[in-house]
Amino acid sequence: MTTQGEPLRVTAIAGTAELGGAERVLLDFANRAFEHDIALKVLFPADGPLVGILNKIGVPAEVVPAPTSLQHGFRRGQWYRPSSLAGMLLWSRRLRRHPFVLEADVIYTVAFRAHVAATWGGLHPVVWHLHKFPPVAARGTWLGTARKRPARLIANSEAVAEGWGENRERGKGKGEEDRTPGSGKRETGGRGHVTVIHNGVNLDRFHPRERSYWIHDQLGIPRGHRLVGMPAVYARWKGHFEVIAAFEQICEEFPDTHLVIVGGSIYDTEAEHQFGEELRQVTGEFRVVVSGGQEGVAGRGDKGKGKGEKGKEKEKGKRERGKEPERERGGKGERGPRDEPDSERMRNGGYAEMVQAGIPNVHLLPFQREIEKAYPEFDLAVHYSLRPEPFGRVVLEAMACAVPIVAAGEGGPVEVLGEGIGPRREAGWLAEPRNPAALARIFRSALSLPTDVLRSIGMAGRRRAEDHFSARTFAGKVAEVLREAGVGRGTTDPYV
After folding, report:
1. Which of 270, 316, 371, 380 is most deeply packed, by most CB within 10 A?
2. Per-residue model confidence (pLDDT) at position 482
3. 3-state secondary structure the chain
4. What is the pLDDT of residue 122?
5. Per-domain boundaries in the chain
6. What is the reported pLDDT for 165?
């Protein structure tokens, strides 16, 4: 038990050591935990880049190997199967015996498998940091456990707090509401309360920079052309095909504009790898190794040719297909593929149509660990998930880099982008979810604006990030919740 004046000993348990969204949030906290008298240590189920990064910055990080059955269960989305649950129990026992856990005052979990493993351990006050909505599988069990077992809950948005069933503000009179990002505490009806703390962003790392045109040069795009950037892990629900479909509708009007999809298979799941192959077919690209061992992209069958040459061949092929029936765009009567409701289009062969069409000016860029260097190359960024996004870290990173952002109008991004009228918000635009035609209209509006207007929208986003979403403020709020959970450690409470 920590005595007065000593740092609070906190052990964080993560679900992966890869650099996904939740893991970057953990890194933001780890970088600043010492500023709040938190002695942080971190445990992972398998090795990955974050282990080395944390140790390098002075935060002890180790691996407690999770059984293969548990790892496979999560990769396949089948964590609830008996073999995976048996693996979870074994991992929980291993964690329970690790010195980082035995010496801790509070356990801080940042992923579903970590929530379960720490809760089953039952030795310490546990704080769940909720980065996602409740899983559909066994939803009732998750909600019940969240109310009864953790000492505290942290939600990364109001949307996530409501998704976990928390909808009453604590300490406010009737009709009162605090809309300041990250300010809400809500009752849970159980052991503690959930605190809404919006994710922060490292404003020193993510900031406006002069454009270097490195993406243009790597992909063979003329430097005078504009880029719409889409950083996203390879997952179907992130909306890649819908963004491509929307871009297809405006690419002829803006021939000097390119869509650059930045990402890869971060979590090494079967679904991610399969989806990545589909994306490469749609864009006509495949992975190759270029100088220095860095992974790059080239056109199928065009190895050794420049990107610009491949783009010309795509355009030529598109013109040669002019014998196909002309697509009707705006009139009544017959409807062409572009005017078919987009959700129907995706179900009725839209993917196959994209592969055949070889949509021009769409490019893949591999996952970038220094993603902060990619945002300043974009004229516009897009984040268009097909289901409500718990927070939308891409939205905040783009804002911090002063890049205007278009996001789906639901979930966390609604809170991050700020107030506005209609689709226009303080730092960008909110597009109707799951509607590529509506997204195309936003693209058209944004790309039609003068360059100085677009830049002013980007700078408004930077100011909003500075005012409400700094990583330093975020870390202080998380530390406060952890300290609250640690009060009374070592009492006769049967849970602790």
Report:
1. 380
2. 97
3. CCCCCCCEEEEEECCCCCCCHHHHHHHHHHCCHHHHCEEEEEEECCCCHHHHHHHHCCCCEEECCCCHHHHHHHHCCCCCCHHHHHHHHHHHHHHHHCHHHHCCCEEEECCHHHHHHHHHHCCCCEEEEECCCCCCCCHHHHHHHHHHCCCEEEECCHHHHHHCCCCCECCCCCCCCCCCCCCCEEECCCCCEEEECCCCECCCCCCCCCCCCHHHHHHCCCCCCEEEEEECCCCHHHCHHHHHHHHHHHCCCCCCEEEEEEECCCCCCHHHHHHHHHHHHHHCEEEEECHHHCEEEEECCCCCCCHHHHHHHHHHHHHHHHHCCCCCCCCCCCCCHHHCCHHHHHHHHHHHHHHHHCCCCEEEEECCCCHHHCHHHCCEEEECCCCCECCCHHHHHHHHCCCCEEEECCEHHHHHHCCEECCEECCEEEECCCCHHHHHHHHHHHHCCCHHHHHHHHHHHHHHHHHHCEHHHHHHHHHHHHHHHHCCCCCCCCCC
4. 73
5. 8-200+470-486, 214-468
6. 85
pLDDT at residue 283, rounded to an integer: 79
What's the pLDDT score for residue 238?
A: 95
Contact 217, 225 (CB under 8 A): no
- Note the pLDDT of residue 281: 84
Q: What is the pLDDT of residue 39?
A: 98
Q: Which residues of the chain have pLDDT under 50?
A: 167-180, 183, 187-192, 286-349, 355, 490-496
Q: Would 8-200+470-486 and 214-468 be classified into the same CATH topology?
A: yes
Handedness of CA 268, 110, 51, 230 (dihedral sign): positive
The pLDDT value given to residue 97: 95
- pLDDT value of position 174: 34
Q: 214-468 belongs to which homologous superfamily?
A: Glycogen Phosphorylase B; (3.40.50.2000)
Q: Which of 21, 68, 20, 15 is nearest to 42 (CA)?
A: 15
